[in-house]
Amino acid sequence: MAHIPVLLKESIEGLVLRPGMVYFDGTLGAGGHAAVAYESVGGALTVLGCDRDEDALVRSRERLESVGCSPVLFHGTFDKIGEYLAQAGYSAVDAILLDLGVSSFQIDDSGRGFTFLKDEPLLMTMQKEIGESDFSAADIVNTWGESSIADIIFGYGEERYARRIARAIISAREVQPIKTTHELVEVIKQAVPVSYRHGRIHPATRTFQALRIAVNDELQIITRGLDASFRHLKPGGRLAVISFHSLEDRIVKTAFRKFAEEDELGDTHAMVITKKPVCPTEEEFIANPRARSAKLRIIQKVL
User: Fold this and answer.
1) 8 A C-beta contact, residue 126 and residue 29
2) Beta partners for residue 45, in sequence order
């Protein structure tokens, strides 16, 4: 499935880009948002960006160059925006976009175990090259204790049957290590009630989400990245964030509220542009079902 940028029109329009601005994309993916941002001001935009997936950098560079853009790209996570800007010769930018979703390429084509619909090695690592010392989802399910596994499945996946799934994982790995996605899916299916196996979502959805978040330290990176991004916005600059599940959105909402609070002198350093999150239209949901849970929030730096 080709990657379709989510809330594309709403996010780019919400950044209110103008010629001569500097734009930073902290989650480049396939470069869809960045390319439209560049074209929206007739190419008079400096585009910087990063991604932790090497393949994403290749795809996004090709996409941007196809519209005449010569971007400055970095391999890594967006919480290191300060380092990237310093290397590029900037201290702050006019607009930042963070699309926190996992791209369709990573889900469908990475071969790293993000999807339960294919039988792949149980890795779930965003980076392409995996060394023996690198942490993976297989490490969690085969070496962590039962309570720790249950805690992340419940905490990061909001899975009601987390304890039962963790117990089943421990029992299964005593027979043989759980090495592939389909092996884990079978363990999960056997652990949950029959009715849950045939519910609205696949019974492994929340467990896979939790493992991916834990392996990639996603929530901590979001927290650090929001702070760093806001610090490196110019006065009047805007930060747009697209989240895909309640844990991410809660972090974004809390951070924006903090940024917009008055300080001890009564000054306000930011204004939340989106009083309520912007969600996909019905037309977008029909065209791209993976957009169904997306929420866009935008904040503008004042001081």
Assistant:
1) no
2) 21
Residue 55, CA distances (Å) to 28, 123, 290 in order: 11, 16, 21
**pLDDT digits 0-9 by tens, 76-115:** 999 999 999 999 999 999 999 999 987 666 666 667 788 8
Enter the pTM of the model: 0.91
CA distance 193 to 81: 45
Predicted confidence at residue 108, as pLDDT, reads 62
Domains of the chain as residue ranges with CATH:
8-105+218-301 (3.40.50.150), 111-216 (1.10.150.170)
Mean pLDDT of 13-23: 98
- CA atoms within 13 Å, Cβ hemisphere of 94: 15
Query: Residue 195 — φ and ψ, nearest 5°?
Result: -65, -30
Residue 297 β-bridge partners: 241
Helices H / strands E in the chain, number of each: 14, 7
Cα gap 239→71, rounded to integer Å: 19
Dihedral Cα 275, 270, 14, 105, nearest 10 deg: -90
Give percent of the chain with pLDDT exceeding 70.
Answer: 93
The total number of residues shown for the chain amounts to 303
Which strand ranges, in their side-by-side order, compose the sheet holding 233-243? 72-75, 45-51, 21-25, 93-99, 233-243, 295-301, 270-272
Contacts of 20 (CB under 8 A, 6+ apart): 44, 45
Q: Where are the beta strands (DSSP E) in the chain?
A: 21-25, 45-51, 72-75, 93-99, 233-243, 270-272, 295-301
